[in-house]
Amino acid sequence: MSLVGNVGTLDTPGTASPVQAGRRARWRYLPYYLAIAPFFVVFAVFWCYPLLYSLFLSFHRWDGIGPMHFVGLANFRFLVTDQAFWLSILNTMVIWVMSVIPMTILALLIALGLNSTIRFTGFYRIAYFVPNVTSVVAMSLVFSSIFSEQFGILNWVLGAVGVDPVPWLTNPWGIRTAISVLIIWRWVGYNAIIFLAGLQAIPGEVLEAARVDGASPVQAFFRVTLPLLRPVLLFSVLMSAIGGMQIFAESQVLVGNRGGPGQAGLTMVLYFYDQAFYYNDFGYGAAISWGIFLVVVIFAGINWRLIQRPARREGAR
Amino acid sequence: MTLTRRAFLTASTTLGVATLAGATVGCASPTTASPGRLTLWYSKDGLSETVLAEAVRRFPADRLNLTPIGDGLKHRLLAAMSGGAYLPDLTMMGDDIASYFPDADQFVDLNTVGAGALKGQYLPWKWDSGTTSDGHMIGFPIDIGPSALYYRHDLFAQAGFPSEPDEVAAAVPTWDDYFRFGQELLRALPGRYLLPDTKMVFTYSMAQQPVKYFDRQNHYLADQDHVRQAWDRALRAFNLRLTAGYGGAQDQGQSVDRHAAWNAGKELSFVNACWITGELKQSAPGTAGSWRVCRSPGGAGNQGGSYLAITRYCPRPQEAFAVVSWLLSPENQPRAYLDAGLFPSSPAAFRDPRLLEPEPFFGGQATMAVFARSASEVKPAYFSPWDITISDTYTDELTNVEVAGKDPAQAWADAQTKVTRLLRHQGVI
User: Fold this and answer.
1) What pLDDT shows up at residue B427?
2) H-run or E-run covering B339
3) CB contact (8 A) between residue A256 and residue B252
4) CA distance A256 to B119
5) Preferred mutation among A30, A59, A79, A258 to probe B, highest tally of B CBs within 10 A
6) CA of A234 to nearest chain B CA: how many angstroms apart?
7) How far apart are CA B166 and CA B176, in angstroms?
8) Can you tell me whether residue B149 is helix, strand or coil?
9) Could you tell me if A187 and A129 are in contact, meaning their C-beta atoms sit under 8 angstroms apart?
10) A150: nearest CB among B78, B260, B396
11) Which of B102, B253, B427 sits opposite A254 (nearest CB)?
12) What does DSSP assign to residue B150?
């Protein structure tokens, strides 16, 4: 009891010599440190240690079993001259752009639709959210059947309307499209639900006022709803950027570890996995992961600037 | 009961102490997964379950602890080895066994526990492939993957071409003969294709070679003419429009197309190791009775296969080896073939009457005779730890030519650059 009760008096001067007080204070704080210890222990063991170890590993050549050989910067020299790595960065960005733009528009439309439904509201909301909680691997398998070149449903439908079959999973742009569609399908419902929450937070009076002032529904959407949704839109783009940097399972299941023909489906994380866990080149794998880290830092910086700018402009006004 | 600050603090302090204590205790983990027992790690379907079940009863003193691993056995093994804890006593290895050669000291040299006496019972090339160049034997033969030509007997006959296994084998002794045969066949059967992709031609051409990319002393071969030959052959199949042009039939997306093609009778033939029979039966049950196998154009080759190894952490390697040699004995191999499709690595099993029965899926043909001959004729070859990476580099570039329209000369040059770069990075050349 006293242990806890005394905390408030710790700062009171004059009760003991400073040294004694310091020592006693340390002991008094012990329970608090212990109380927060579980998080920090887990953090140190499963997060901090692997992180530092991967940096250590990136200066070595190691097959996972035998002794490690120190190779200095060789892995990083190999990395910056590795066409596959640069291609994987490009692929990741391309797939992210190809998925995030259509997805945001689609999610917004779905959210507007959901916002105006009167019946079966719960059903629709759940139905749009289900893809998000479905296993990626299972979905990718289904998608690989849909996009399959000679016997896929999609090419069959295209054939029925007189379009030549598209080699979805062998053509570089076909591969990127297929992966993007899979990502859109998986995340559009999630984002629609977020947007819906945003839409419902917009006070009815504002829209009503716009209507009274003679704004058409389209004007009301672009001049009132969209500006008020800005924070929610930013959140959604930020979340999809985080997800977009980590695209892995979709590519792996659709086009395999090597990224498919022309390595068009090779994303950064897939390339890392390929080198570290398929070819067991752990040193180089670690170097790639630090390369990815740098790309993510740059990307986060750009993101941060974009989000900050409008706020600064408002501040200047 | 309300949560007071004191109760909360006490609870979380206890938790904190427990976590710290747990982290300390964790350091004293056992070397093998279950001390006092023999732990065996194997891939699902990589060993016969019936034989394993009998082994448990047969070796009660060893208290076998069987651990089937669905996927990623190698990852688990590497993790356990680098951690030096929870290791298996016995572990399965795939056809990438050469990647363990640089760390052969992690495994018991099977010659020291009496493997030498059994050498005569197994195929010599398979036996040697589990042994390093300085004679350290780490892998005991489980199964092998002899290759053959699978073809559609009904469609060959329908087109008026040779269709019985012996006739077909006689008509296509070399790859060139096979391609000529295919060109004529496709004229009679338009809208189909002779074989799935260039990757298959390259892979199985290389499988027939007595030398791959390295010599036994792990020196990269300066003379890679045989690789160029396999490459040119694969390109020829593509230029003659004999391939379907899947971007690698092993990949998920392409296997959908390929399975559909099997069912629709579009794939007239293919060269593959015997392990594909299971997939063929399962994915194209409607084609039962239409397939036959015969000697592959270009001759015998092997693709795939696995091994059983004893880790050096196993406290009783002698007893462990008794289990290994019983599990994989010539008497048990026919059971494994019938049970899990594991092709015997011991020639004695080829003569087992149970394996020579007519197979309805192959129209009453006993395929064992074809595969057994292929298995016996495989030329011993040395696999280096980098062979799989190199082979992937070449087949990736072939796929780029085949499906992405890359210039073949550029693709060859790129493959060369990538291989050289990789080997230099690995410190091999």
Assistant:
1) 85
2) helix B333-340
3) yes
4) 39
5) A258
6) 35
7) 18
8) strand
9) no
10) B260
11) B253
12) E
Q: What whole-number distance in Å separates Cα of residue A270 and Cα of residue A257? A: 7
**Which tokens is B266 given?**
């579009």
Which residues 6+ apart lie within 8 Å of B207 measured at CB? B147, B273, B301, B302, B303
Residue A187 identity: W
Q: Which among B247, B250, B421 has CB closest to A169?
A: B247
d(CA B324, CA B331): 13
Identify the structural domains of chain A with CATH numbers, from first to last. Answer: 2-57 (no CATH), 77-316 (1.10.3720.10)
Asked if ipTM goes beyond 0.85, one says no
Write the DSSP symbol of residue B341. -
Write out the residue limits of the CATH 3.40.190.10 domain(s) in chain B: 38-144+304-353, 145-208+228-301+358-384
What's the whole-model pTM score?
0.86
List residues bridging with A173 in a β-sheet: none
Residues of B in contact with A271 (CB under 8 A): none
DSSP three-state, residue B404:
helix
Q: Which residue has the tokens 């993007």?
A: A180
Q: Environment class of residue B237 by beta-carbon count within 10 Å: exposed (0-12), middle (13-18) or buried (19+)?
A: buried
Q: 3-class SS at A113?
A: helix
Q: Determine whether the interchain pair B404/A64 forms a contact, defined as Cβ–Cβ distance below 8 Å.
A: no
DSSP label at B382?
P
Instruction: Please answer whether residues B325 and B101 qualify as being in contact, where contact means their C-beta atoms are separated by less than 8 angstroms.
Output: no
The CA distance from B121 to the nearest CA of chain A, in Å, is 32
CATH architecture group of domain B38-144+304-353: 3-Layer(aba) Sandwich (3.40)
Contact B150, B268 (CB under 8 A): no
Is residue B287 classed as helix, strand or coil in its secondary structure?
A: helix
B372-402, pLDDT tens digit by residue? 999 999 999 988 989 999 999 999 999 889 8
* Contact: B253, A144; criterion CB under 8 Å: yes
Q: Are A174 and A167 in contact (CB under 8 A)?
A: yes
- Per the CB < 8 Å rule, is B248 touching A36? no
Query: What pLDDT was estimated at residue A309?
Result: 62
Neighbour count for residue B3 (Cβ, 10 Å): 8
The rounded distance, in Å, linking the Cα atoms of B280 and B288 is: 9
Structure tokens given for B279: 């997939």
pLDDT tops 50 at residue B185: yes
- pLDDT, one tens digit per residue, over B302-333 is 999 999 999 999 999 999 999 999 999 999 99
Q: Which residues contact A181 (CB under 8 A, 6 or more apart)?
A: A99, A143
Structure tokens at B352: 């087992």
Residue of chain A minimizing CA distance to B426:
A61
B303 min Cα distance to partner chain A (Å): 18
Task: Collapse the DSSP code of A21 into the 3-class scheme (helix H, G, I; strand E, B; otherwise coil) and give the result.
Answer: helix
Which residues make beta-bridge pairs with B151? B269, B292
User: Which residues, at least 6 apart from A82, have a Cβ–Cβ distance to it below 8 Å?
Assistant: none
**Residue B64 above 90 pLDDT?**
yes
d(CA B113, CA B130): 15
8 Å CB contact between B22 and A42: no
Residue A89 in tokens: 């960065």
Name the residue among A238, A290, A240 with its Cα closest to residue A268. Answer: A290
Tell me the chain A residues in contact with residue B102 when contact means C-beta distances shorter than 8 Å.
63, 66
CB B239 within 8 A of CB B227: no
Q: Classify domain B145-208+228-301+358-384 at the CATH topology level.
A: D-Maltodextrin-Binding Protein; domain 2 (3.40.190)
Judging contacts by C-beta atoms under 8 Å, the chain B residues touching residue A68 are none
CA-to-CA dists, residue A307 to A199, A221, A234, A314, angstroms: 20, 22, 7, 12
Asked if A279 is an interface residue toward chain B (Cβ–Cβ < 8 A), one would say yes
